[in-house]
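User: Some background: our group keeps a shared notebook of sequences we're curious about, and every so often someone picks one and asks for a predicted structure to add to the entry. Today it's my turn. The entry only has the sequence so far, pasted here. Could you supply the structure so I can complete it?
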Amino acid sequence: MDYIIVMVTAPDEEVAARIAHEIVEERLAGCVNITKGVRSIYSWEGKIEDEPEVLMIIKTKETLFESLKRRIADLHPYSVPEIISFNVVRGSEDYLKWLNEVTL
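Assistant: Of course. Here's the predicted structure to add to the notebook entry:
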C-alpha cells in the first residue's frame, strides 16, 4: 500500500476545519493537521501577494488522491487551491495500519 501526505493551504482555520471534517468523515483522509500562522507570498494575476493562510497536512492513500483532489476543489473557496502530494517513504507500521483501516 502506498501512502501520501497532501498539503493544502486555506484562507483561515474555519475553512480548513470545514474541509478537514468533510474529507475525514468521507474517509478520503485519515487525519488532517491544521497549522496556523502560515504566511504565503506568491504571484497571482500579475501581482505579488502576501497573505496569511493556514496549512492543512493531510494523510491518506495514493489511491485516494484523485477523489480527494476533486473533493477539496469542490469545498475550497479558492479558484485554484494548492493541492500537492508527497509520497510517504517510510512510517510507523502501526500508524500506517491505522491509516489503511480508517480510509476507503
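Suggested note for the entry: The mean pLDDT is 98. Helices lie at 13-25, 65-75, 93-102.
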